[in-house]
């Protein structure tokens, strides 16, 4: 993943610099290069699950499978200073139960102190698991009947393999009529490599359902008609074949990678479907498309959005509120204190209160900079949030006005992304914004 990100950053910088030379723009530099990534990778030391590892004198650790992604872990840390030893557990991202392929999260028995996440601490997943196979089959069937492609922007690690798992079931049960042998393309070198890593670790990381297939000699994430695209020529050839197909490509939020090329070739075609299967952050191209953009900019061109835009909702690798409570309740020895971290401020504070009220735990949601003494069990310093003081002369903004402000912030991001575009297009963009300002400048 480090190499893939470095490659994308270097390509983006090269493209922007070519544009800048024609428009006298500022030279762009990647945040880090392939050389930087390789240097970091040489420092990585593989560690197995469930084995105590001595990092140095006075510090031991142990990784436990937390079921979020392949290889994800919670970490137990034993820290010794003099005659005093404390055990701290970092939850990491706690996985959702009953995910395709990988195992459910494993629990830890004891700790003096716990730092746990609260990403979904304010929400509960649906009690009835959606039938993803049926829903995906219906989307593919409808799209193929129109003669179009199903394009799936997907995270290369985790979500792509889940999609392959579902599609294998669709093919096995012949759920797409008239197109039983439809081709599927995974067009992401990183996703291809990640899929290979899933294969290599199936015995240790797959759940019981997936292992039933493995024990029968069936690979859970491969099937007839699966094509893995590695080279750029293989990637380009996909869009010159007019056979209806499924194209799975990264990045999942459409911000970089080969998916942008597939959007360029399929977004304008009303017979095609763009299917989103993961969270789309505010300000990303994927979020823009989902929110109803009529046109988008790709590689310096304006592309109209005519394809059917769909979402496969409910897929999540994160434990919900109940899953988080189940994890912390599995401790056989009550922790002295639980620090709630890794979540929006309001969610972290609310979930900490939930732990106090429902689990009778000493819980606290610290702000960044807080210092706590593990030996004495007291705070050296409690950081506070930076207060946002509203102007007394102005009324508190309504929800709609807040939405307008959010759009304004997003517009700034869009403007910055167009740096290096041709002067002609930038002038047109500026004229459009000027006209809009003139209309609403009251």
Count, helices: 14
* Most strands sheet: 7 strands, mixed
Secondary structure: helix percent: 25-40%
Structural class designation = alpha/beta
Quick overview of this protein structure:
The protein has 442 residues and is of the alpha/beta class. The chain has helices at residues 2-23, 34-41, 132-145, 159-172, 189-200, 202-205, 208-215, 232-238, 259-266, 285-290, 321-329, 345-359, 399-417, 423-440; strands at residues 53-56, 59-65, 73-81, 84-90, 113-117, 150-153, 184-187, 226-229, 246-249, 273-276, 295-298, 301-304, 308-311, 337-341, 363-364, 371-373, 378-381.
Your description of this structure?
Helix content is 37%, strand content 18%. The protein is of the alpha/beta class and 442 residues long. It has four domains: 40 residues; 138 residues, 4-Layer Sandwich (Metallo-beta-lactamase, Chain A), CATH 3.60.15; 180 residues, Rossmann fold; 40 residues, no CATH class. The protein has a seven-stranded mixed β-sheet, with helices on one face. A six-stranded parallel β-sheet has the order 8-7-9-6-10-13, with helices on both faces. α1 packs antiparallel against α2 and α3 packs across α4. The two termini are 49 Å apart. The relative contact order is 0.12.
